[in-house]
Specification:
This protein has three domains: about 5-60, RNA-binding S4 domain (Structural Genomics Hypothetical 15.5 Kd Protein In mrcA-pckA Intergenic Region, Chain A), CATH 3.10.290; about 65-130 and about 220-235, 2-Layer Sandwich (Alpha-Beta Plaits); about 135-210, Alpha-Beta Plaits, CATH 3.30.70.1560. Strands 7, 8, 9, 10, 11, 12, 13, 14 and 15 form a nine-stranded mixed beta sheet that branches. A hairpin with a 2-residue loop joins strand 13 and strand 14. It is an alpha+beta fold and about 240 residues long. It has helices at about 5-15, 20-25, 95, 120-125, 145-155, 190-195, 230-235; strands at about 5, 30-35, 35, 45, 50-55, 55-60, 65-70, 100, 110-115, 135-140, 170-175, 180-185, 200-210, 215, 225. It is built from seven helices and 15 strands. The structure holds uracil. Uracil binds near residues 106 and 205.
């Protein structure tokens, strides 16, 4: 059995605000546990598996959160976005309080699968180059592509400021203007720069898959997010 904690502390570490703010939520009768309103902030509960509600919205206690977002265009992954809203505005504000951050970044105009978490070790492991998590992108080409373009991407293209050519792991044309490309690094604007180096141009870019986890399997509309379950996390943590 894990250690019991006062309810205001549980709310605080689940992202419901400051210590004082959480105490007030409870005192105001806005928090229920197992269907019963609790008005004493220091009432203790075992947090593991705890189901509670705040303003009638149900929550499950989670030590960490692991999230997948279908990122729309015109949102920035940066914590301090400059030209567009941040991706955190698409998520409940509790996640900002919990310091949920993107695992790596997508450009503001790139759409598709973005992972986020408040678990530093997970973020570090997933973004570490040693993990070599292949990432599948679908690029909309500005000019129709051909086999020569695919061959060049597979052979490797020289990017500015890189010591050696960088090759796609997999590349193939879906149709004349859509290319599926798999890379296992995450260099700045990598896919766009690879396409430019190969003489084409990326008109739009979408991330379809990270490791074994595909966006299609999550069934999320643009702008929607979901918690990742243990099976989905196991897919991401698989070393192969
Ligand atoms: N490559 C890019 O050029 N942009 C992204 O957002 C991701 C990969």
């Amino acid at each position: 059995m894990s250690k019991k904690l006062p309810l205001y502390r549980i709310l605080q570490n689940q992202g419901f605000g400051t210590r004082k703010g959480c105490q007030l939520l409870i005192e105001d009768g806005d928090v229920s546990v197992a269907g019963e309103v609790v008005t004493k902030p220091k009432t203790e509960f075992d947090p593991v598996g705890l189901e509670f509600s705040v303003f009638d919205e149900p929550w499950l206690y989670r030590e960490h959160v692991y999230i997948a977002l279908n990122k729309p265009a015109n949102f920035e992954c940066s914590r301090k976005p400059s030209h567009h809203p941040g991706v955190h505005t698409l998520l409940p504000e509790q996640f900002t309080w919990r310091d949920v951050q993107p695992v790596g970044r997508l450009d503001h105009d790139t759409t598709g699968l973005l992972l986020l978490s408040d678990h530093g070790a997970f973020i570090h492991a997933q973004s570490h180059p040693k993990h070599h998590q292949p990432k599948v992108y679908v690029a909309t080409l500005a000019e129709p592509g051909d086999q020569a373009l695919v061959d060049e991407l597979l052979a490797g293209v020289q990017l500015h400021d890189e010591p050696a050519p960088i090759a796609a792991q997999i590349a193939h044309l879906i149709d004349a203007t859509h290319l599926e490309i798999v890379i296992d690094q995450g260099k700045y604007h990598q896919v766009k720069r690879m396409l430019a180096a190969a003489g084409n141009h990326c008109a739009a870019l979408a991330r379809a898959q990270i490791g074994g986890l595909s966006l299609a399997s999550l069934d999320l509309a643009e702008g929607e997010w979901c918690y990742l379950d243990d099976a989905q996390l196991a897919i991401l943590n698989r070393e192969d």
